[in-house]
Amino acid sequence: MSVQNKKLSPDQQESLLSVLEKRFENNMNRHKNIKWDQVLSKLKNNPEKLWTLDEMERTEGEPDVVAYDEKTNEYIFFDCSAESPKGRRSLCYDHEALEKRKENKPKDSALNLASEMGLKILNEEEYRELQKLGKFDTKTSSWIATPDTIRKLGGAIFADFRYDTIFIYHNGAESYYAARGFRGSVRI
What we know:
Oligomer: single chain
Strand content: 15-25%
Strand order of the largest sheet: 1-2-8-3
Largest sheet: 4 strands, antiparallel
Distance between the termini: 20 Å
Shape: globular
Helix content: 25-40%
Radius of gyration: 16 Å
Order of helices and strands: HHHEEHHEHEHEEEE
């Protein structure tokens, strides 16, 4: 079933919208000059995106509005949980890396799961923008979108925040750790 065919029941929608509104109101520094009523209108007109946001919430990503793109008339949600989402850890980077593991394979890869959820994994620029909104990944790390030049050589990159600094590191794409997940974004 594609993401477009996945929908929440009316009760699930109301429950999710309540959680998102409360988070929006409690974190106004993340979305200055954005009004909840305008976000709510977009959300109600995009039920397939509500399903994606619910998946973000279910995996403990704590999605929140972080920007509005005037060119595309879209609100941008990022995972804003303090640490890399608990329900999305212990994953290698992508499907190719998952297939290369012969022993002790993780349950999935970050890119596979992101695609199933209807998410785009954060890139380095987006990760740096997220860190302007608070301190994230102070004890965990998150895979971020890896340039093809690095990936073709077998590597993948991840990021975290330590010593008041954003660090971008590399690892073999087939590696996985209990404290490394991924953060995603969705546009509505």
